[in-house]
Write a structure and sequence with these properties.
With about 220 residues, this protein is mainly β. It is about 15% helix and about 35% strand.
């Protein structure tokens, strides 16, 4: 990232993209709780059945600073983090690359989806049995999966958190995620008000390049 980028923008990019969304009960990990062998298969079914998602999110970094906004996801590979207006930040994936737009300093940065832990969400064809590990929790209704690529430690680690819900795709509802980047910086994103498989237009992932216009953002 160029040094001229603001400190706030650098923190947000690390938080939102090298991390990934956790609302509803946060799981407590315990060696006493049982892991169901078919849970990881259920997570895969959920991700394949989740054609779209809208939700509110709260993003919290390791220092406790929080930002909120709206998350929109559409498979394959498209996601949009619409932050609160005073953040002047937007993160969008068009299916090929993630783009972070900082409207305050008029900077844009892109990187391949495969280089982000968010690939676990944006590529439902990914084989989680190769990259994912179930974590034990104290609540049998909570399913937690840690995803990492042992051959690419620089991509970081993402822990997806779900709660069992018969009305949600595949019987699970995504409540959020916790991520650690390669420098061990933790970020948590909590979701609320999840709406699955609603109509989402392709142009929901369009954005305005601040380097080319002085007009309003988006």
């Amino acid at each position: 990232m160029p040094l001229i980028w603001s400190k706030t923008a650098a923190v947000l990019m690390s938080a939102a993209v090298l991390a990934a969304p956790l609302a509803a009960p946060q799981p407590a990990y315990s060696q006493a709780a049982a892991v169901q062998p078919n849970d990881i298969a259920q997570v895969t079914r959920h991700l394949k059945a989740m054609q779209s998602l809208r939700a509110q999110f709260v993003q919290t970094d390791r220092s406790g600073q929080s930002l909120s906004g709206t998350l929109t996801l559409k498979q394959p590979g498209r996601i949009r983090f619409e932050y609160q207006k005073d953040a002047q930040l937007l993160i969008v994936s068009d299916g090929r690359a993630l783009t972070m737009i900082d409207y305050q300093v008029k900077q844009v940065q892109r990187w391949p989806i495969r280089n982000s832990p968010l690939g676990a969400l944006l590529d439902p064809s990914r084989d989680l049995t190769r990259y994912g590990k179930l974590l034990k929790t104290t609540d049998p209704d909570v399913v937690s999966v840690e995803v990492r690529d042992a051959k690419r430690p620089e991509y970081g680690v993402i822990t997806l958190v779900f709660i069992r819900s018969a009305s949600a795709p595949g019987g699970l509802s995504l409540t959020g995620w916790v991520a650690l980047d390669s420098q061990n910086k933790r970020t948590t994103i909590r979701l609320s008000g999840q709406q699955y498989n609603v109509a989402v237009a392709d142009n929901a992932f369009a954005w305005t390049d601040p380097r080319r216009t002085t007009g309003p953002r988006r």
